[in-house]
Structure prediction request, 391 residues.
Amino acid sequence: MPTTLITNIGSLVTNDPNLGTGPLGLVADAAVVMADGLIAWVGPADRAPAADEVYDAGGRAALPGFVDSHSHLVFGGDRTQEFNARMSGTPYTAGGIRTTVAATRAASDAELDATVARYVTEARRQGTTTIETKSGYGLTAEDEARSLRIAAAHTPETTYLGAHIVAPEYADDPAGYVDLVTGPMLEACAPHARWVDVFCEKGAFDGDQARAILTAGARAGLIPRVHANQLTYGPGVQLAVELGAASADHCTHLTDADVDALASSGGATVATLLPGAEFSTRATYPDARRLIDAGAAVALSTDCNPGSSFTSSMPFCIAVAVRDMRMTPDEAVAAATLGGARALRRDDVGRITAGARADVMLLDAPSHVHLAYRPGVPLVSRVWQGGVRAA
Prediction:
């Protein structure tokens, strides 16, 4: 693979304070060299080594590729009518998941694969170079396993979410469904997943059920993460920290004890905030300021799914987080890159430092602040993924 030099970068976000100014490690008038899929060199443009190919950034800002650590891309059907009803005054109660379950079961493998490919590509055009995605719309052992097989063709970050809701067939026997999720379904899905997740929420799975599911997943070699405290207060966050989950996702309704637990985890359990869900359901936004000031590690992700957050745009989530969740532009950018990497327990992405994967995006703007300053504008002008032009 030829080496590539990106030079004349107006402002470079490295996410390494040792390389530049502030927590983002900003370097002005910068250059980056990519070789063999990795970052080989970072520094001032006037000191850059020679490379086989040279790309002039023209003073644009450069950032690490976004790391979207929470999405649901394996689905069939459409929930436009649900969204329209919700925007017309019908509250969201998570019941629409069953609509997607029926459509996903009816979809062919080819149809589901095309859906995942479409939204991974859509996200990449907006700067996302690492994406996690989940099962959870099949809710049978066969459908959950095929969902994960399909997802794994597009990303190594796959999550077993058989515990999204209780399957319709088990509506009168939730304990039986937990047995399925922790038994035959887990056995079928574990070979195709890295993570295990559960929707710990009223109307889905309570704390005891969630503990059983996550513990069984961990015994099968999967790392826990938790849908926690989205719709109301509950045990999800405390359970995530107790079990050493990589992330507690949503974190919309938090007690002081929940915040303290996340902060005291020392970043081991990341609070992953999903503002697209609140935007799309007209719900209360998470208080990112409260979490950050307490010392908790925070990530931003899209929660891309057909029901409650049908966006693949990390720039959109950054803009909403700055506007409505009291994050600074620097904090939001860090959460969408380095924060997502931490939520996936990755140290090779989310930063532009020597040895990291060469995931770099250029903005058609002089600063990363424009991601929040110019909401809704398609600012991502070029993307390299593993050192290869991807968008």
